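Entry 14. Structure prediction run on the chain below.
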Amino acid sequence: MNIKTYADKISQMIRPQSFPLGVKIIKEENELPEGFMRPSKYGIQISLCQWTTLARRWGRFAGVLAEDINCSPCLAALGLKKLEDRNDLATYFLDMGYFDTIELAQRVTEQLDPIPAGKIKGIAMFPLDKTPVDPDLVVIYGTPAQMARLSAGFLYHSGELIESSTTGFGLSCLSAIKPYVSGKPALVHPGRGERILAGTDECEMFFSFPAKDLELLVDGLEKTHKKGTRYPIQSYMLYQPPVIPPVKTLDEKLRVSN
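Output returned:
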């Protein structure tokens, strides 16, 4: 089964409102595949989450290198530029008003565990059903109910609970890429930054996982679907609603027509 078939099956069983994405991690600056749209085409720099929206809602092949991004926290967190001292990122969080003290900001910075500088040189994103290169990750946006359905499909073969963590304020770009490093799926609540800059809807979350697990996910979705775990979720309809007094009064005035 090829990747396009997997993408079609995900679309059939999950029904996301935007394209499931393939993500290719660029390890060398000259590895960005040909034909991928960069912000420089428009003479701008962007936040990475904007290009994610371009790929998942516009259906574009979107690529970025460090010089394409003007979101300093993203550059630092993904190691696209070198962060000499993690305390500088913690100080940024404090300056933004996200924490009461520098100690709290430092604690969260350590938990975020930024990707070491140089491990990643760029990111390429594309609709999964148009895959031009083999992806390293798959990222799917949707509602909480759709994310629960994806989680159930993934859990079918993994047997491991799927972790979810959020800052609430930003760096969902790091959370999206972390499965490339950890090898484990992530259920992500996009923060304030992505919702402001990339137009991510209030009801949207996303599920990110290593592309090597795509076949197992789809198989898990199909098998749990056969057992009754489905999307859209089937509200139970086989019951008789209670009759409230106004309805009863009206009913008493009705006659069977001849």
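Residues 3-82+117-232 form one domain.
Filed with the rest of this week's runs.
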